[in-house]
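Raw record, unedited: ABC transporter substrate-binding protein
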Amino acid sequence: MKLTAGLLGCAVLTAALAGCGSPSSGGPETVVIRVQGMPPATDKPGLEQFKKMVADFERQNPGIKVQGSTTVFDPLTFSAKLAGGKVEEVIKVPLTEPQGLIARKQVRPLTKELSAWTHYKEFNPQVLRPLSDASGEVYGVPQAPFAQGLVYNRDLFTKAGLDPDKPPTTWAEVRTAAKAIAAETGKAGFVHESKSNQGGWQLTMLAYTHGGEVQREEGGKHVAAFNTAPVKQALTLLKEMRWTDDSMGDSQLNDQNDVIKRFAAGEIGMYMGTPGTYRLAKMTYGMENTDAFGIGPLPQAGGNATLTGGDVYLVPKSATAEKAAAAVKWLLFAYAEPQYDPAAAAQRAKELAADPESAVGVPTLPMFDAAQQTKIDEAIKPYVNVKLEHFRPWLEGTPALTLRPEPAVLAQQVYSVLDTVVQAVLTNKDASVDELLAKAETDVNAKLAAARK
C-alpha cells in the first residue's frame, strides 16, 4: 500500500449542510436527485466549491438536477428513515454500514452503472471490497478511505522535551510521552474517545494494535471476540494511563468533536485519528496554529495493524432505476473522477487554494493504483497549502501496518456496548476490566443472535 497526499476538497467532504444546490424541481423530463455530502457552513471554500461542482455537473448533464441535503448519518434514526423510504437518492454512511445494508437488500447494486465508466476496473480493490457482496456486486463509491494514526500536538511535544519529528510508534512510548506532556505542560497527554459509539470504535483500533479483535466468524455466524488477553491489555493500558499516570486529563466523556475541539485549542497532546481531522481542527474549530498538527502511524503493541474505514455513498432501494442511474453519474463526477483525473484534481485544488482557510493536500488512502495517485499528487502539488512534512511520519509508517476493517455485523451496536466499558474504565478507578469485558461480550452476543433470527 502506498500512501500519498491527495486533494481534500469536495471530493472528500466530511459533513453536510443545506442551502445550496440546484432548483428543487425541473421540467417534465428532468430527473431530480437529492444528495448527501455537502460541507458545513464553517467550510466556506468547500461549500463554494460544492456549489460550483453542482453547476458544472448540471451543465454536463442537462437532464439531471441536484439538490443538496443537510442529512448526516445518525445510528439512532437511520434505520427507521431508510425503512420508511425517507432518505435521499444518495446517502452517506460510515464504512461499518454497507455490509448490513447489502445483506438486508436495502441498497441498490450499482455494478452495471459503475462499470460503464472507462476507468472502473482501475479502482483500488481494497476500497471497493467493503462495498461489495460475495458475488462481487458493487453497491457504492467510497469517499476518502482512511487509516487511523496518532495525531499529536507538535508544540506540546517540544515543550515536554519530546522530538516533534519522531512521534511514538509503540504504546509504551505513548504512555511515556503522555506523562511528560501532562507533567511539563499541565495538558492532557492522551485522550481516548468514550461516547457516541466512538469509545467502542477507538477500543477496536486499540485492540487491533495489541493483536486482538472485536468480532470473528464461527461456523458461518459472527460472534463477539473481545474478552481476550490482547483487549484486556489494551483496556489495562487506558486504566493505568488514567489512574496511575494521571496523564489523560480530567474530562473523560468525549466524542470525536469534543476531542478535536480541545486539540484545536491546544489542550490535548495526542489522540487516535486520521489526517483528515486536520480539516476539522482548522475549519470547524478554528485551530490557529495549524503548524502544531502532526500525525504518525498508529502505535503498536504486537498487533502490527491499524483500523481502516471512511465514508461511502450508496443508493437506497427506494430510488427508482432512473434516479439510481443519475445518482451514479453524480457519484462518479463528484468523488471518483477528481481522484483519477489529474486535470480535474488540479482544477479543484486550485479553486480551494484560492481561499486561505482551505486545506489542500491532506493525505488519504489512494482510491486508484499508485501510478495514478502519483499523477494526482504532481497535479495538485502547486496548490498544496498544508505542511506535508508534518504528515510524513504517517505516510512513511502506515504502509508497514496491516489494514483491518471494522466489525462486519452490527458494528454500531457493538460500539455502543463497548462505550460503556471504556467509560467505566476511565471514570471508575476500581472498575474490573475482566468483569466489564465478560458482561459486554454476553450483551453483544445476544444482539448478534437476535439479528440472525
